[in-house]
Design goal:
The complex is a heterodimer of chains A (262) and B (243).
Chain A lengths: L1 H26 L9 E7 L2 E5 L16 E4 L2 E8 L6 E3 L6 E3 L4 E5 L5 E4 L5 E2 L5 E2 L5 E3 L8 E6 L4 E6 L6 E5 L2 E3 L7 E4 L2 E3 L8 E3 L9 E3 L1 E3 L5 H33 L3
Antiparallel strand pairs in A: 1-4, 2-3, 5-20, 6-19, 7-8, 7-11, 7-15, 8-17, 9-10, 12-13, 13-14, 15-18, 16-17
Chain B lengths: L2 H25 L9 E10 L10 E11 L6 E3 L6 E4 L3 E6 L2 E5 L5 E2 L5 E2 L23 E3 L4 E4 L2 E5 L2 E4 L6 E4 L2 E3 L6 E2 L5 E4 L1 E3 L5 H37 L2
Antiparallel strand pairs in B: 1-2, 3-17, 4-16, 5-6, 5-12, 7-8, 9-10, 10-11, 12-15, 13-14
Helix pairs in contact in B: 1-2
The chains are: A alpha+beta (262), B alpha+beta (243).
Chain lengths: 262, 243
């Protein structure tokens, strides 16, 4: 009997996780380069009470369908949907957006490489391109002090106009990393991801190459959260949560009937 | 003498099992590809001591649980590796314990760029091999008949199988079903694979809630019947012993 209570509890836990994931999506609605997540569920193991195909008589007749009792639900995975986010024009020369596959490479404080879709770069005191946390873009690009204009083209070349020089000067090349399995990257916050065994090693290339996205200067990639979808999912999750609580309530009422049996 | 109690007891056990099944259905309301279970009760004839037909007791037993094979609602996700089957059929998946079947088409890629389930089990292609998306591919298209194409050419076709009697498939958990050895495979008629969607569970919450209330009320009325019988026996004993 307490099976009903346990099953109802697994249902409530699952929906709780669902609401957690949805609220994180909504909270990050305006985070640059954020990719929305989705909780996915799986049924738990089954108890076999009567096996299908067992003999039901000595004449060799068999039971067509046995009795299989499910034991509830569990969270299978929280999956990141790496759909392209809409580009938001900012006009800032150092804001760059990736229009396709690939991640910017960022040198983390420990020397390790992190990967990001957030292209809102700034300059540090040495004129190097850094993220808003001050982490260096890899390969490092230094903008000369006397540069008056910065152009970053579709294939990621950084060109600067220096006062008094007629030609643009190439000061570096932005490179992108792609992965066999983007969904396997580990999110560590600050819009950064780490390579894992599931993602496969980073494959480095220039923007605009086959398989790599192009660069758009003066734009940022907004989050790919669709607010209508999220609110609908939130309503569904809340109702599912309530229904599971009703299951527990019913199980409880049945149990109390039993205790009143005498 | 205790016949009524035994009949009532058999019904209460059956109702408890039905409640468990309903609870599992509700818990799996948002599990992709989940098919709701139903319970089948039959009467079990218990021949009493006498040979007279009126001595025969009819008790309830839970005879079988079966899956409702109704189509679940397709939910649009926009993810290229989410596929749903509209109509009959199951995707084939290779697991450590052998081939398993599933209706949950929320696939992803692993580090070898094979199409796998969320538990990392490779999805089988039509020829039996696994489906590998080349690393340079930037777009994946899955057509109505399950053929997977990237911008670099064809990759293969999803294996979709149907069975003569789908009820024989046994639930394994993790959205997987196991086929017994004697099951007869057949190709699905009018296959429709839909890309960018997953099939939700086919649970109808209103029906499940209704069923739950019904189970509870039946349980309570059986309880009342048992209590009345208890009173009856007690008063009988009291009256008979008042000599």
């Amino acid at each position: 009997m307490s099976l009903t209570l346990d099953i109802g509890a697994t249902g409530m836990l699952a929906q709780q996780l669902n609401v957690d994931v949805i609220s994180n999506n909504i909270a990050n609605m305006t985070t640059t380069g954020y990719k929305r997540q989705r909780a996915e569920f799986q049924d738990l193991l089954y108890q076999t009470r009567v096996r299908a195909g067992a003999n039901s008589s000595s004449d060799g007749t068999t039971i067509p369908a046995g009795i299989q009792m499910g034991l509830g639900v569990k969270a299978g995975s929280v999956y990141r949907i790496n759909e392209q986010g809409a580009l938001q024009m900012t006009g800032n020369q150092l804001d760059i957006a990736n229009k396709g596959q690939g991640y910017f490479q960022i040198t983390l404080p420990g020397g390790e490489l992190g990967y990001s879709r957030d292209g809102s770069f700034q300059l540090d005191q040495n004129g190097q391109m850094v993220t808003s946390e001050g982490y260096l873009l890899e390969p490092a690009i230094t903008i000369p002090n006397d540069a008056v204009d910065i152009t970053i083209n579709d294939s990621g070349e950084v060109l600067v106009k220096i006062e008094g020089q007629p030609a643009l000067q190439n000061v570096g090349q932005i490179q992108l990393a792609i992965f066999a399995n983007d969904a396997g990257l580990e999110a560590i916050g600050d819009n950064l991801y780490l390579e894992t065994e599931a993602s496969g090693p980073a494959i480095i290339g220039n923007p605009g190459q086959e398989g790599y996205g192009g660069i758009e200067q003066g734009a940022l990639e907004s989050a790919n959260v669709n607010i209508v979808q999220e609110i609908t999912a939130l309503i569904q999750a809340q109702r599912a949560y309530e229904m599971n609580s009703k299951v527990i309530q019913t199980g409880d009422e049945m149990l109390s009937t039993v205790t009143n049996l005498r | 003498m205790e016949n009524i109690s035994y009949i009532g007891l058999s019904q209460q056990i059956a109702l408890q099992q039905q409640m468990n099944v309903t609870a599992n259905n509700v818990a799996n309301m948002s599990t992709p590809g989940f098919k709701g279970q139903r319970v089948l009760f039959v009467d079990y004839l218990n021949k009493g001591k006498g040979a007279q037909p009126q001595d025969t007791l009819q008790q309830v037993i839970n005879y079988a649980s079966y899956r409702s094979l109704e189509q679940g609602v397709l939910q649009q996700t926009g993810n290229p590796l989410d596929v749903a089957i509209e109509g009959d059929g199951y995707f084939a998946v290779t697991t450590a314990a052998g081939r398993r079947y599933t209706r949950a088409g929320n696939f992803t890629l692993n580090a070898n760029r094979e199409i796998v389930t969320k538990n990392g089990q490779p999805v089988e292609g039509d020829g039996g091999g696994h489906l590998v998306i080349p690393p340079e591919a930037t777009s994946i298209t899955i057509t109505r008949d399950g053929t997977i194409t990237t911008n670099l050419g064809d990759v293969g076709r999803l294996k979709v199988t149907n069975f003569e009697n789908e009820q024989l498939l046994v639930e394994q958990g993790n959205n997987l079903l196991r086929a017994p050895a004697d099951i007869v495979e057949r190709p699905p008629e009018d296959l429709r694979v839909v890309q960018g969607s997953i099939e939700g569970s086919n649970i109808n919450p209103i029906l499940e809630m209704n069923r739950m209330v019904e189970v509870l009320r039946m349980y309570q009325s059986t309880h009342r019947m048992l209590q009345n019988d208890h009173e009856r026996i007690r008063s009988t004993i009291q009256k008979l012993t008042r000599v």
